[in-house]
Amino acid sequence: MLHFSYGVMGSSKSAMLLMQRYNHLQLGHYVVLIKPAIDTRIDASTVYSRVGLQAQADIVLYPEQSLYEQLMWLMARQGHSDFPYVFVDEAQFLTEAQVEEIANLAMDHEFYCFGLKTDFLGNFFPGSAALMRLAEEISEVPGGLCWCGAKATMNTRIDRNGNVIKTGDQILIDNQEETRYIGLCYKHWKMGKSHA
Ligand SMILES: [Zn+2]
Predict the structure, then answer these.
(1) What distance in angstroms lies between residue 148's CA and the mean position of ligand 1's atoms?
(2) What is the pTM of this model?
(3) CA-based, 20 to 30 A from 115: which of 18, 26, 36, 47?
């Protein structure tokens, strides 16, 4: 089954992923952790959450790669014959082809994808659009709040002075210095107001 859990910047997506993965590990399940290569926070293979949990991804997946091929390589290396539980962090960065591959594999395996629904302009990422089309279970990771206290639903790109940025490429990684991302409620995202 293909599960997609989406949440805004500042929700606890990665923490939730790591906790669910941990529950499976405690039961002795073989769990594969995948991360698209584009996210460079800390380093390419670390799945990191703001509350301090982290784990190393088993597969760092590049856009041109087949997920199935990478899973086959991993199992050969680790001596497993199946991949019953697969978790994907930052799933918005999957390509449409990779999500379609996952949808087919998920007929016989459990795939848990976590990621953003939309970019800083409010448009789908290709990976999230495909997941919204094909996931068999879609749920929202709660917890993101706007500075006004309302539920945050929109991802917002801001510069080092807190100014809202409404132009630029869809993917520009959060480097904590020049560019950061925060979650805002729809009203304050629309107004471009990132603080009181
Ligand atoms: Zn607000």
Answers:
(1) 4
(2) 0.92
(3) 26
Q: Which residues surround ligand 1, an ion (CB under 5 A)?
A: 146, 148, 150, 185, 188
Domains of the chain are 2-140 (3.40.50.300), 154-191 (no CATH)
For 164, the token pair is 């809202």
Is 110 one of the annotated active-site residues of the chain? Answer: no
Strands across the sheet with 164-165, in order? 164-165, 154-159, 179-184
CA of 191 to the centre of ligand 1 (A): 10
Nearest to 20 by CA among 40, 3, 44, 37: 3
Catalytic, out of 64, 90, 140, 178 = 90
Start-end of H helices in 56-151: 67-78, 96-105, 126-134
